[in-house]
């Protein structure tokens, strides 16, 4: 808890919104003379001035008095529907320690930031150098989300029914439900955004991205995604080259077998080396020592008010065993039910397809020919509806499980969706491969999926953004240039919110599954994925910079559960490729010539599978998850933290 001396009475500061910055006249704990606008709170058009003044005073009040200890400006005037928010230096520094961020110490080494030792860190007097723009904006959002009513009270200017705040109720969530707050989003720095855009999606930067600039402006979540996408693109070159070679059959060489073994080994090496790359980036960006479990609970968390036994803070408490019961007894069965519905839909599709084909063979009419397309259409509609329903159910289930940390909430939600996505995208391919055992059909189906995805990707990643920016957004841009009085904040409010990276990761994961699970039957898989990624990087960068609002980004140390999902697919690829090898013409011919029975073939396949799993485990063990220099730096930080704690006790 901050003292009044540390926090200051923030609401007594005089500020002027001039050329995009506040000018601070008096602040006893802040050295910087100018504070940039970081976050915009968009209020309802019908909000009362008294409500806006009350919210501003709450934002600016010290934490001792239940406020957020931030800086707030009413925008155009007190009757407007925006509040622009920033943060004083002391609030930013204390939040840096609470988040567990590492910053450069005076010896130029990274160290866990400590507020009491702040003068020994470099650039600590200049917040724009000490913290990235994404970190400063996230801290403001985190402080706003932490606002809680100290006692039961009425919200001024809001009708009595929705305008009553209960004690310790989250204020921002209440204001959203009451219709006072419409949205909260970080503000773009247009000059920095334009500079980043020129460096990022320029035609000269196909294979190298400004990752540090991306992390500084958009945050670690975005930077890790694009770093992984770049790493994945480079890693696709060896399998793409092998696929091109194996496309032309070589005498005496089984391309099927070579591709299968290579895919199994490649997926393991790729994931292990990405872990090393990820740990290096985490060290460079100072996020490998985060302390989210000790931070304030996420806004949606609820429970019985009590003292946290770890932090000693008064906050909602929810027993872990109750959460586990909800996950085990309700969430798991419901997820299993939906997975069963996926299998049921696939079974119905094949049954309907057989009926229609039989009917067409008997009648041969134009009508029966049209009916041939009905099972595919019905199955597509069915899976689309099921997917939308499941996504809504998965979100509600995860909210009901009541996770304290945001990362835990995201991990459980993503895991649920990933299970459904895996079944929905790969069930048909597994059915063709292992039930029908029809390699030509599997090759045809995989090729059609990849080519269709390539065409759709070219449209969504290149054509659609170009049309939107050139023809739909151009009139607004011209109007903005002509109207010198237009508020820059209004222009950002017109942009749609960024939908997140969920769909992008799902797309990468599905295509990685095509490569690692089934590429032995279609060697050109890696070639098509490489071509797709080359356009994916500038396309995604263009959309993020041009077509959406700037998103908030919490500090992260890796890709989270997405990394685990890629590891699981790499493990499943061993089993998939082993059984696909059994269907290889060369293996079948070898078994027939050697007189090996079907039972013995299965035993041999199981043996080979276990040997390859062992090889995978040995490879994973031999390739450390982090380079030696990162491990040494991490251990040094842990040792220094222990020494600092010992000195404090003395």
UniProtKB/TrEMBL annotation:
Q: Which InterPro entries match?
A: Anoctamin (IPR007632), Anoctamin_TM (IPR049452)
Q: Where in the cell is it found?
A: Membrane
**Alphabetical keyword list:** Membrane, Transmembrane, Transmembrane helix
Reading the lineage from the top rank, the first entry is: Eukaryota
- A Pfam family annotated for this chain is Anoctamin
| An MF annotation (GO) of this entry | chloride channel activity
GO CC annotation, single: plasma membrane
Q: Does the keyword Metal-binding apply?
A: no
Topology in the lipid bilayer: Multi-pass membrane protein
Instruction: Pinpoint the Anoctamin transmembrane domain residues.
Output: 214-636
Q: Does the keyword Metal-binding apply?
A: no
Q: What PANTHER family does the record tag this protein with?
A: ANOCTAMIN
Which family is this sequence assigned to? Belongs to the anoctamin family.
Q: What is this protein called?
A: Anoctamin
Please name the source species: Oncorhynchus mykiss (Rainbow trout)
């Amino acid at each position: 808890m901050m003292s009044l001396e540390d926090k200051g009475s923030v609401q007594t500061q005089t500020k002027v919104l001039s050329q995009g910055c506040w000018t601070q006249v008096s602040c006893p704990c802040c050295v910087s003379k100018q504070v940039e606008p970081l976050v915009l709170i968009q209020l309802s058009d019908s909000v009362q001035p008294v409500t806006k003044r009350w919210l501003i005073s709450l934002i600016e009040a010290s934490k001792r008095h239940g406020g957020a200890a931030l800086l707030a400006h009413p925008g155009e005037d007190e009757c407007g529907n925006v509040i622009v928010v920033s943060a004083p230096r002391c609030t930013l520094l204390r939040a840096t320690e609470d988040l567990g961020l590492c910053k450069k110490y005076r010896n130029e080494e990274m160290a866990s930031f400590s507020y009491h030792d702040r003068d020994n860190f470099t650039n600590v007097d200049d917040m724009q150098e000490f913290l990235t723009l994404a970190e400063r904006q996230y801290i403001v959002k985190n402080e706003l989300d932490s606002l809680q009513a100290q006692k039961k009270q009425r919200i001024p200017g809001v009708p009595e029914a929705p305008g009553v705040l209960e004690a310790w109720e989250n204020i921002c969530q209440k204001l959203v439900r009451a219709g006072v707050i419409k949205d909260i989003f970080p503000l773009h720095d247009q000059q920095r955004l334009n500079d980043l855009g020129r460096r990022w999606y320029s035609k000269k930067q196909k294979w190298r991205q400004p990752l540090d600039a991306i992390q500084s402006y958009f945050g670690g979540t975005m930077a890790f995604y694009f770093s992984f996408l770049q790493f994945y693109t480079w890693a696709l070159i060896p399998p793409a080259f092998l696929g091109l070679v194996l496309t032309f059959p070589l005498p005496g060489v089984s391309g099927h077998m070579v591709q299968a073994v290579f895919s199994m080994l490649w997926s393991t090496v790729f994931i292990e080396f990405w872990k090393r790359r990820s740990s290096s980036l985490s060290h460079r960006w100072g996020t490998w020592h985060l302390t989210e479990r000790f931070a304030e609970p996420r806004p949606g968390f609820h429970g019985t008010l009590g003292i946290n036994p770890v932090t000693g803070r008064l906050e909602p408490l929810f027993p872990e065993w109750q959460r586990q019961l909800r996950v085990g007894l309700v969430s798991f069965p419901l997820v299993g039910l939906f997975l069963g519905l996926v299998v049921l839909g696939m079974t119905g599709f094949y049954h309907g397809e057989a009926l229609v084909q039989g009917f067409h063979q008997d009648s041969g009419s134009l009508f029966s020919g049209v009916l041939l397309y009905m099972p595919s259409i019905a199955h597509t509609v069915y899976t689309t509806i099921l997917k939308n329903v499941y996504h809504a159910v998965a979100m509600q289930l995860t909210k009901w499980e009541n996770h304290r940390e945001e990362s835990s909430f995201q991990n459980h939600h993503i895991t649920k969706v990933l299970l459904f996505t895996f079944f929905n995208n790969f069930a048909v391919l597994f059915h063709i491969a292992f039930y029908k055992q029809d390699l030509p059909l599997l090759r045809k189906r995989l090729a059609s999926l990849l080519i269709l995805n390539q065409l759709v990707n070219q449209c969504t990643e290149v054509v659609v953004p170009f049309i939107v920016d050139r023809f739909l957004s151009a009139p607004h841009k011209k109007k903005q240039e002509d109207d010198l009085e237009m508020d820059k904040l209004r222009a950002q409010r017109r942009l749609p919110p960024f939908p997140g990276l969920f769909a992008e990761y799902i797309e990468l994961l599905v295509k990685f599954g095509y490569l690692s699970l089934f590429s032995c039957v279609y060697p050109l898989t890696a070639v098509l994925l490489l071509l797709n990624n080359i356009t994916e990087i500038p396309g995604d960068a263009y959309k993020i910079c041009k077509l959406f609002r700037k998103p908030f980004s919490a500090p992260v140390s890796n890709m989270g559960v997405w990394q685990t999902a890629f590891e699981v697919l790499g493990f499943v690829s061993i089993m998939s490729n082993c059984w696909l090898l059994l269907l290889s013409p060369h293996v079948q011919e070898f078994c027939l010539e050697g007189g090996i029975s079907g039972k013995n073939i299965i035993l041999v396949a199981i043996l080979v599978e276990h040997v390859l799993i062992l090889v995978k485990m040995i490879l994973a063990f031999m390739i450390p998850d982090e380079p030696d220099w990162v491990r040494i730096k991490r251990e040094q930080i842990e040792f220094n933290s222990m020494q600092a704690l010992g000195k404090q006790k003395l």
